[in-house]
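Appendix C: a fully annotated inverse folding record. The material below is reproduced so that readers can follow the format used throughout the book. The structure is listed first as C-alpha cells, followed by the designed sequence.
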C-alpha cells in the first residue's frame, strides 16, 4: 500500500502480495533496509514486547512521520497472528487511524494506540523515497 501511496507502482500492482502469498513466518525483518521501486524501508522498535517497551517513543516517532506527510506501517495482532496495517492519520484527540486489506475487505482501526498498549508495543516500518 505504501508503494501505491508513493505513486511508484500502479494501483493494480500486486506482485509483492502474490509473491508473499500467505507466508506465516515473514516479518518486517524481510524488508529492513530494502529498496523497492525507489523506496527504502527501515524497521524500528524491534524490541521485546514487555513492560519496558518505549511506547511513548514509538508514538512520537509515528507522529513525526505523519507530520512529515508519510504513512507508517505497523504490525498489529489479528485472529491469525499478526497483520500489517498502514497508519494514515492522527485524529484531533491523538489516536491513530490504520487501515489494511484482507482479500477484498478494507479493514479500518480507529483505536491503534489502544491495541499497541494492550500488547506492550510493536515494531513499525518507516520509509524514505530515494532521489533519482
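Designed amino acids, in order:
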Amino acid at each position: 500500500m505504501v508503494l501505491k501511496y508513493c505513486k511508484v507502482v500502479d494501483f493494480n500492482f500486486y506482485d509483492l502480495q502474490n509473491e508473499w502469498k500467505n507466508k506465516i513466518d515473514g516479518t518486517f525483518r524481510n524488508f529492513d533496509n530494502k529498496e523497492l521501486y525507489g523506496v527504502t524501508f527501515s524497521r524500528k522498535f524491534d524490541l521485546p514486547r514487555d513492560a519496558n517497551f518505549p511506547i511513548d517513543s514509538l508514538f512520537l516517532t509515528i507522529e513525526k512521520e505523519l507530520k512529515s506527510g508519510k504513512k507508517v506501517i505497523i504490525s498489529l495482532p489479528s485472529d491469525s497472528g499478526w497483520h500489517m496495517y498502514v497508519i494514515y492519520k492522527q485524529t484531533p484527540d491523538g489516536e491513530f487511524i490504520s487501515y489494511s486489506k484482507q482479500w477484498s475487505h478494507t479493514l479500518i482501526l480507529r483505536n491503534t494506540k489502544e491495541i499497541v498498549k494492550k500488547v506492550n508495543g510493536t515494531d513499525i516500518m518507516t520509509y524514505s523515497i530515494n532521489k533519482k
